Amino acid sequence: MHKVADIDVQHNITKANKKIADRITKKLNDSNIFGVDFVGAIGSGKTSLIEELIQRMDGNIGVIAGDVISKFDAGRFKKFNIPVVGLNTGKECHLDAHLVEHAIEDMPLDNIDYLLVENVGNLICPVDFDLGSHIRVVVISVSEGDDTVEKHPLIFQSADLVIINKVDIAGAVEADVGKMVNDVKVLNPDVEVIKTSLKKEIGLSNVINAIDRFKKRMDL
Q1: What is the pTM of this model?
Q2: Which residues of 37-72 are buried (b: 16+ CB within 10 A; e: fewer)?
Q3: Which residue segments constitute the domains of the chain, with CATH numbers given?
Q4: What is the torsional sign of CA 140, 71, 81, 23?
Q5: Less packed terminus of the chain by CB within 10 Å, N or C?
Q6: How many CA atoms lie within 13 A of 204 on its CB side?
Q7: Mean of the per-residue pLDDT values of the chain
Q8: What separation in angstroms does the CA of 218 have from each of 46, 65, 119, 134?
């Protein structure tokens, strides 16, 4: 009779990823850089939000743009004349710490105060992959439906900050923003939830203030 060995591949991959992520965090800390991982589905407004932050935040910003084909979003960020590294994930639906560690090698760390990482447009795959950033920001939009939080509980449980975007069109798409906020709080009672509309410039200052508060807590 053949012996069968159970190998927890997912556990081993996650453990290896965490080891690299810890190295990234140390490198960012040593360089006094605050790292932010932005996660959200396609169309949630991640790219537009990062564009606004680049223009409005105090301090020098570098961006890592991850996508199946990254040149499109990376090209949008490069227009602001900041350091940008594009990461192509091919068939993979998330970034991992190994990819990010290599991208950081191409960043002028001495001249950056914030490193913003745009993850691949997905609310499922990135859950278990720590990128070494100091906080994870989850961005969703009302156009995705007000049951989005209920359908993706794990990503919201791992969030340090949640942004509900495009609130100006909630009525048009029949989305209950209050329900979305409540659903987040059920999963993650202590997380801050900010309602935004990039088109109407609603909530942007609140996002910036929240990121800066996290940065100050970590003395970076």
Answers
A1: 0.91
A2: bbbbbeebbbbebbbbbbeebeeebbbbbbbeebee
A3: 9-217 (3.40.50.300)
A4: positive
A5: N
A6: 18
A7: 93
A8: 24, 24, 23, 9
